[in-house]
Amino acid sequence: MTKRSRANILDSNHIIINVQEFFAIAFTGCVRRSQFLFLTTYRYSLSLKKLLLNTFHG
User: What separation in angstroms does the CA of 24 have from each of 28, 36, 37?
Assistant: First the structure.
């Protein structure tokens, strides 16, 4: 095994690791965003429900 082929193998492993990290970061970002959206819509629907109840019963 020459030094060059060893360096190429290390390089490809490094690229694979970077791709995995990128996907991990992207995935966690998407999960956080969806959680945030879910929470905001949930709060919004709760406040809307309160508003409707106050309108009809008040």
Answer: 6, 18, 20
DSSP letter at 16 equals H
pTM for the model stands at 0.49
Residue 22 CA: distances (Å) to CA of 3, 13, 14, 32, 53: 29, 14, 12, 15, 46
Find tokens 């193998």 and name the residue: 9
Average pLDDT over residues 16-41: 90
The helix (H) or strand (E) run that includes residue 43 is: helix 3-57
pLDDT of residue 54: 87
